[in-house]
Amino acid sequence: MKWNPGHDRAQQETAGALTRHHAPHWWVMWSYSLRAWVAFYLGSATVTPLRYTDPDELSQHMRHVAHRVAAGRTP
């Protein structure tokens, strides 16, 4: 069977849940080609997008970066 985006529905839903959980500072997408979740920081700090294959690790790192930014430290 040929692959289509619908096959990754669970990963897309996880990306949406992560975006809602970390709003308003992060937007998360599932990258079909990378087979990983990618998080983009939406605040004023310059943060390199985060890329993880495990959503729990991604969430933990997003929290870490957000705390560093809030403390005035570069991520």
Enumerate how many helices there are, as a single number.
Answer: 2
Q: What is the rounded distance between the termini? A: 42 Å
With strands numbered from the N-terminus, the spatial order across the biggest sheet is 1-2-3
- Biggest sheet features: 3 strands, antiparallel
Low-confidence stretches: none
Task: Give the overall form.
Answer: elongated
* H and E order: HEEEH
Structural class: alpha+beta
Number of strands: 3
As an assembly, this protein is single chain
Which helices and strands appear, and what pairs or packs with what?
Blueprint: H1 9-21, E1 26-31, E2 36-41, E3 50-52, H2 55-70
Antiparallel strand pairs: 1-2, 2-3
Task: Tag the structure with descriptive keywords.
2 helices, 75 residues, elongated, 3 strands, single chain, three-stranded antiparallel sheet, 20% strand
Structure description:
The protein is an alpha+beta fold. It has helices at residues 9-21, 55-70; strands spanning 26-31, 36-41, 50-52. It starts with 8 loop residues before the first helix and ends in a 5-residue tail after the last helix. 19% of the residues are buried.
